[in-house]
Request: fold
Amino acid sequence: MKIKKVILGLLGTLLVLGIAGYTTSKISPWPMALFLRYAFDYGADKKSEALEKYVPDHITTIQDQCYDPTDPEALLDVYYPENQIVTASIVWVHGGGWLSGNKEQVSNYCKILASKGFSVVSIDYALAPSVVYPGPVRQLTMALDYLIQNQHRLPIRSAKIILAGDSAGAQIAAQTAALLTSPEYARQLGIIPKTPVCTIAGLVLYCGPYDIGKTDIETGFKGLARPILWSYSGTKDFLTDAYFKTASVNQYITKNFPPAFISAGNGDDLLLQSQVLARNLSGLGVPVDTLFFSNVYTPKLPHEYQFNLDNKAGTIALQRSVAFIKTLP
Reply:
């Protein structure tokens, strides 16, 4: 009975927020952004809880390291295995449509990854609409520089850093890799990173949006694409905004892009964007490993399928990600 009341209360709150978001959606992205943040965070928390049983023992956590002295909320956590040699460092950028999520929601998954012999960093970044594009990209470059500068006291293997992310976090990771390997693109963005290019050994990208212009604005993600992109871009006219077009990573990759592992589920609205990114990178001669599933694979694998380790596909994705990282020099 208590659980039923909680669920009914949650649904009631979502209904109120949804109505408010709908009625003011032509004026400001804020009401809908807050509604989506609430809903997305609820789902992400549930996924994290489901992973708890898979988290191994003997994982050490270093919490709340501030990577930007001017922003006390710019924090990251580091996970690493006890009594193991760290062979690579993974920097994971959480998803959430650029307007929700936090480093804690991927902490269990990061701990699972750390048990494979890696140090894994989970970062927080400022959320839209409070901070708009390309704020998270700029923050990720700062976090990378912080990790390199503090490798003497943190378990960071700077010679083998892997950028990783899910959904919006995959886009942020991919865009950061693109600007680190293309000075011209970095100048267009107005982000001149300190991080040396050679520190990014590869990427692990799940379910990301890599070409904003190819997003189905009206029906994508059940019609939620429009308020999400309005919130992140900072403009209602995001499709015609010249600067926001630079968020379409697929248009700015070069042959110097790091090797990448790319995956998305066969029931994901963003599947095609992952497939196109993989194809374009391969065409440039960039080493690419992919994990895609046939159209007839059942049950259909939804957005963020990789976090479900109760499903065989999620287990395969984890194994393939680890194998890819271990093959990198």
